[in-house]
């Protein structure tokens, strides 16, 4: 039995034939159990010798089977690896991670500062009408101040690309009147200007708008100071200069001081130590009225800041055209 079984085992070439062999010899009706049962039929004197021999054969065959089965399994694995040479032990390739555009990052930082101060964030349209972009902001047709904003007009008379986010003031006031307002309106603006390292035809602005009883210039100053210190550091000083916008009265321009240690300080501040970050002022009574409010009951302030400007300061970027050039070498630095 042992010789026959061993010979048969040797020619089993795969797992299936090995299993068949196992059933034939070790299965319930296999030859080994049958041989073991014979012990009972033998004369007592032969039983011990027979039993020992049968057990030895059983152990030897089952050991031989285990080792043959192990080898067949390994061979099958090897064959499948050769057939399909995929090395699952190699470390995976990590997918390239996208990043947020530097402009988006700074915008989000600005939103979070203003929302901490209780401002809501609004969107307003980029394609505007002349009325909202100019007239309702206290600039009737032919008003000379319109020259401050070189405008992209569309072929439809009276429809243009907004030159600033200030028309959003009108939309928000009309929607919220007579409630008090504390809102920021971020978004793109367009100006028909020569493209230079300092100015693009498209850029972002963040408009701020506060309307309510007893809103004063002090509130404006406090808001701007808090904003500048959160964004640029606690030690930051602001400076306010008198200015002119048709939709605010009085109008101001706000500068922040720039550390002299910055190698770019002189270039940025032109030696004055101060850098302009926004236009602002108390909302003109005519504009409040155009938004539906009674200037005798409420007052308000507004500001318009340029996030690209701020980002250029923060990161030492010297060419505004980089923002929209889609150059990965630039974008991946942030
Ligand atoms: N809209 C002005 C500009 O584009 C900025 C501004 C906003 C000034 C709000 C005053 C109040 O230059």
From TrEMBL:
PROSITE patterns: AA_TRNA_LIGASE_II
Catalytic activity: tRNA(Phe) + L-phenylalanine + ATP = L-phenylalanyl-tRNA(Phe) + AMP + diphosphate + H(+)
Keyword Transmembrane attributed: no
Cofactor or coenzyme needed: Mg(2+)
Pfam families membership: Phe_tRNA-synt_N (PF02912), tRNA-synt_2d (PF01409)
UniProt superkingdom: Bacteria
Subunit structure: Tetramer of two alpha and two beta subunits.
Family: Belongs to the class-II aminoacyl-tRNA synthetase family. Phe-tRNA synthetase alpha subunit type 1 subfamily.
Protein name: Phenylalanine--tRNA ligase alpha subunit
Origin species: Telmatocola sphagniphila
Name of encoding gene: pheS
């Amino acid at each position: 039995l042992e010789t026959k079984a061993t010979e048969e085992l040797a020619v089993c070439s795969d797992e299936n034939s090995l299993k068949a062999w196992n059933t034939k010899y070790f299965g319930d009706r296999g030859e080994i159990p049958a041989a073991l049962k014979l012990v009972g039929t033998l004369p007592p004197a032969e039983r011990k010798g027979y039993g020992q021999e049968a057990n030895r054969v059983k152990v030897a065959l089952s050991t031989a089977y285990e080792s043959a089965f192990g080898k067949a399994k390994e061979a099958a694995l090897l064959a499948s690896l050769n057939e399909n040479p995929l090395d699952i032990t190699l470390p995976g390739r990590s997918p390239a991670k996208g990043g947020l555009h530097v402009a988006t990052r700074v915008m989000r930082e600005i939103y979070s500062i203003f929302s901490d101060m209780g401002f809501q964030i609004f969107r307003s349209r980029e394609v505007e009408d002349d009325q909202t972009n100019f007239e309702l902001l206290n600039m009737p047709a032919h008003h000379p101040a319109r020259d401050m904003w070189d405008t992209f007009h569309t072929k439809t008379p009276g429809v243009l690309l907004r030159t600033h986010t200030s028309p959003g003031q009108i939309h928000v006031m009309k929607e919220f009147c007579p409630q008090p307002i504390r809102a920021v309106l971020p978004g793109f603006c367009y100006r028909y200007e020569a493209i230079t390292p300092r100015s693009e035809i498209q850029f972002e602005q963040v408009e701020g708008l506060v309307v309510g009883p007893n809103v004063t210039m002090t509130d404006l100053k406090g808001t701007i100071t808090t904003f500048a210190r959160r964004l640029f550091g606690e030690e930051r000083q602001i400076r306010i200069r008198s200015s002119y916008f048709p939709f605010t009265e009085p109008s101001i321009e706000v500068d922040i001081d720039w550390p002299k240690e910055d190698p770019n300080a002189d270039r940025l501040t032109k030696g004055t130590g101060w850098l302009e970050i926004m236009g602002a002022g108390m909302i003109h009574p005519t504009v409040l009225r155009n938004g539906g409010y009674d200037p005798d009951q409420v007052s308000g302030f507004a500001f318009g800041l340029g996030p690209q400007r701020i980002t250029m300061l923060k990161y030492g970027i010297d060419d505004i055209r980089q923002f929209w050039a889609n150059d990965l070498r630039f974008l991946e630095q942030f």
